[in-house]
Amino acid sequence: MNTRLKKLREHLQMTQKQFAESIGISRPNLTNIETGKVQLADRNIKTICSVYNVNEDWLKNGNGEMFNDLSEDEEFDMLVGRLYADDDPFKKQVIKTMLTLDDDEWKFLEKMFNKIKKTR
Fold first, then answer.
1. How many angstroms separate the CA atoms of 60 and 20, rounded?
2. Exposed / middle / buried, residue 35 (Cβ in 10 Å: 0-12, 13-18, 19+)
3. CATH node for 2-61
4. What is the helix, strand, coil percentage profile of the chain, to 5?
5. Bridge partners of 67?
6. Which residues of the chain have pLDDT under 50?
7. Which residue from 49, 74, 70 is spatially nearest to 59, judged by alpha carbons?
């Protein structure tokens, strides 16, 4: 399970500190779990699976896919929640600002987004 936990954390592009804080453990404890020195507690398994929509059977036994299937709305909610939980104040400010946009501002933002998308 320790290698799958590390694989998950790396897939989420999180540092040990970020991931440990998100599941309520210390970074040194996470290091010990990832290196196999300590077992991951059941309550932490439940938290990881709930917060990151991880397939519990995959985490425990390596069976199935890393993540459970989500509807588009569920995936959106999870991503916004993860972004909001990030310690980056700029990311939080972006979310807060976007939540206060009126219809004209959304239309402007959509035009800008489409221009950026075309250049990539």
1. 18
2. exposed
3. 1.10.260.40
4. 70, 0, 30
5. 54
6. none
7. 49
DSSP secondary structure of 29-53: HHHHHHTTSSPPPHHHHHHHHHHH-
- Cα gap 70→75, rounded to integer Å: 6
For residues 67 and 4, give the distance between their C-alpha atoms in angstroms, rounded to a whole number.
12
Q: Residue 24 to residues 19, 20, 82, 102, 116: CA-CA distances in angstroms?
A: 9, 6, 15, 37, 38
In the chain, where are the structural domains located? 2-61, 72-119
Buried b (16+ CB within 10 A) or exposed e, 43-61: ebbebbbebbbbbeebbee
CA neighbor of 8 nearest in space, from 81, 92, 28, 22: 22
The reported pLDDT for the residue numbered 88 is 84
Tokens encoding 43: 């309550």
The strand pairing partners of 54, in sequence order, are 67
Tokens 């939080």 -> residue: 92
